[in-house]
Amino acid sequence: MSWDTELTALTTRIAGPLFTRPEPREAFADLVRALLADVPRKNSWQLADHIGHATAHRFEHLLDRAKWDVEILRDEVRSYVITHLGSDHGVLIADDTSAIKKGEMSVGVADQYCGLTGQVENCQVMPMITYASSAGHAFVNRRLYLPESWAGDAERRGRAGVPEHVAFRTKPQLVIDMLTEEIAAGTPFRYLCADSGYGRDPHLRAFCHERSLGYVLAVPVDLPLVAVRGGTEPVGHVLDRLLALGRAGIWERRSCGAGTKGMRVYDWTALAVAVAGQAPAPGHAHTLLIRRSVAAPTEVEFFLAHALAGTAVPELIDAAGMRWKIEENNEQGKDLLGLTSYQVRKWTPWHRHVTIAMLALAFLAVTRATLPADADEVIGEGKDRLLQEASPR
């Protein structure tokens, strides 16, 4: 089948039960196609112009006033990804992305830390979940972080259409909510991966312990571990102690997977640890992975792994390396598919736009997975060769 035929089949299958009227069904298919096209700015007006609509009204109606359940679409995106990319050795990766906005009307916007710039910005923060396997990777779940300043402001909530049942949740709590949904959906995964912003949260780790879920999470240097001679010590002291004992040969150079610039090679060491106040699940053990940059040996990162006892360290290193897949998805979503180029301000339109962009990304990931093994197209390197082949003409 051609790219165009595959896309038409996908949008037709999903749109059939999702919409009761033909107009939103057609607008949905057009919007997915337009998001995949080479449009410089992917707001509703430019997307409408590209697809041949006289105005943006059809897309605006689809995102705002049309009657359809965006959670059903989210479930369809997940099902599509798992059908084509799913594996018992897959991983779920949690991270948040940001959308810098002007003004204070966009739902959830506030002065808060922005991962795009590394500083406080007026932005929205979106915790996301990527599913990744050896076949490919794509988003399968999403949340919009609602700061406390929004969660407790009834007038603001009302203007933005925030449902009454939505309460303040921290970003790790939102990830727990999404993990709960993935477990209920039967999503096959071996590990949860995330950066230290999530790895430092004891409630997220406890959730995994209680359900015997594996994880490989980056953790901060002050995470408390049970010390060898009693008491506790921060993670950062473990490496200092090993080096003080003269164990210079503790490092082993290994790749943790391919990146956009080639294999990611680091020096690694690992040792069994006990986390203060948090026992692993029955039959599981905690392992501390320490990763050192080859080019800059003072650059060190720590990972806490929770896995079945006896799990080989190379498997944990491979899982740690999968964390970057969600960063690639964030980049692809923004640069190629307009993930954060929306002009919507309310709760429902935000979820609809982001979920439709997730479907477009999933389609690219599945398309990439069907290419020959020696294909050199890589989704995400700007408007790369895969997009050129896949763009509607």
TrEMBL record:
Where does this protein come from, organism-wise?
Planomonospora venezuelensis
| NCBIfam families cross-referenced by the UniProt entry | transpos_IS701
- Alphabetical list of PANTHER family matching this protein: TRANSPOSASE (PTHR33627:SF1)
Q: What is this protein called?
A: SRSO17 transposase
Under InterPro entries, the record lists: IS701-like, IS701-like_DDE_dom, RNaseH-like_sf
Per UniProt, residues of the Transposase IS701-like DDE domain are 18-224
Q: Which SUPFAM superfamilies match?
A: Ribonuclease H-like
Q: Which Pfam families match?
A: DDE_5
